[in-house]
């Protein structure tokens, strides 16, 4: 196990256990851990793909690791994919009486106010999911967990999260693309789509300055190829390894 991943594993178990509600330690399942320099500052991060227990928890969490193996969790996690109908596969923090959804009173364009509210909610509650028209907050232990879902429409135009959950992430990897923007991309496989994230900056408040786009998987795609070097590659259904590229729009 790479030393950075081992440092993150120890940090998770000893200092900042995920999904800690009311003192209950839910068994953590790590699907994958990728080491990559997401913001291209010369220091790699560890990107952990979790199988969460709660439907308000991020399946992708980023950890910064220093040269002395000191670990800091980035507060903003990622939940790629559309909002989907409930499957019954996850627990709900509302059912514990530890969560509330609320509509902020902002005028159009008051982005600074939304950011301030997100910061305050993180300090008060611990868990925050921001949607276009409302916030989900829950009382979980730890150093704060935030998810930005403002880019998606909520099913049935509701102002609460009672009817949907995050998509299941099948696979993750990170690296450069053979063609397209220069820099490291975090890639997440959701259904037959690949969500590509670029992180420009880790902000002082623990959130991300980022962008994303969604691409269809290549016709011969089977899975991401592990340990494929600096560029993202994938395994075809015939067992070949190809570089990940997408047609120009």
How would you describe what is shown here?
With 249 residues, this protein is mainly β. It has helices spanning 3-14, 111-124, and strands at 20-21, 24-25, 30-36, 45-50, 60-65, 71-73, 76-77, 84-85, 99-102, 126-130, 135-139, 145-148, 164-165, 171-175, 185-190, 193-202, 208-216, 221-224, 233-236, 241-243. Strands 7-12-10-11-9 form a five-stranded mixed beta sheet, covered by helices on one side. A four-stranded antiparallel beta sheet has the order 3-4-5-6. β15 (185-190) and β16 form a beta hairpin. The longest helix has 14 residues, at 111-124. The radius of gyration is 18 Å and the shape is globular. The model has no long low-confidence stretch (mean pLDDT 89).
Quick structural summary:
This protein is mainly β and 249 residues long.
Q: Encode the helix/strand succession as letters.
A: HEEEEEEEEEHEEEEEEEEEEE
The number of helical elements comes to 2
* Helix coverage percent: 10-25%
- The side-by-side strand order for the widest beta sheet comes to 7-12-10-11-9
User: Largest beta sheet, briefly?
Assistant: 5 strands, mixed
Oligomer: single chain
Radius of gyration (Å): 18 Å
Strand content: 35-45%
Distance between the termini: 40 Å
Residue windows where pLDDT falls under 50 for at least 5 positions: none
The tally of strands reads: 20
Helical/strand content category: mainly beta
Shape designation: globular
Global mean pLDDT: 89
């Amino acid at each position: 196990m790479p030393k950075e991943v081992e440092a993150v594993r120890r940090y998770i178990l000893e200092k900042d256990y995920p999904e800690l509600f009311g003192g209950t330690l839910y068994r953590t399942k790590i699907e994958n851990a990728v080491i990559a320099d997401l913001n291209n500052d010369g220091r790699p991060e560890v990107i952990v793909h979790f199988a969460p227990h709660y439907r308000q928890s991020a399946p992708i969490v980023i950890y910064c690791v220093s040269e002395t193996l000191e670990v800091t969790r980035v507060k903003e996690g990622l939940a790629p994919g559309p909002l989907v109908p409930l499957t019954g596969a996850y627990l709900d923090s509302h059912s514990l009486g530890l969560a509330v959804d609320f509509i902020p009173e902002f005028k159009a364009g008051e982005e600074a106010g939304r950011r301030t509210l997100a910061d305050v909610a993180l300090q008060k509650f611990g868990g925050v999911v921001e949607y276009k028209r409302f916030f989900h907050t829950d009382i979980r232990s730890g150093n704060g967990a935030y998810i930005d879902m403002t880019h998606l429409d909520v099913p049935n135009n509701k102002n609460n999260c009672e009817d949907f959950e995050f998509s299941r992430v099948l696979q993750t990897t990170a690296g450069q693309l053979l063609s397209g923007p220069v820099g490291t991309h975090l890639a997440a496989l959701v259904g037959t789509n690949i969500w590509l994230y670029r992180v420009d900056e880790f902000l002082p408040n623990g959130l991300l300055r980022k962008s994303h786009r969604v691409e269809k998987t290549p016709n011969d795609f089977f899975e991401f190829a592990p340990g494929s070097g600096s560029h993202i590659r994938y395994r075809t259904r015939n067992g070949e390894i190809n570089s990940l590229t997408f047609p120009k729009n």
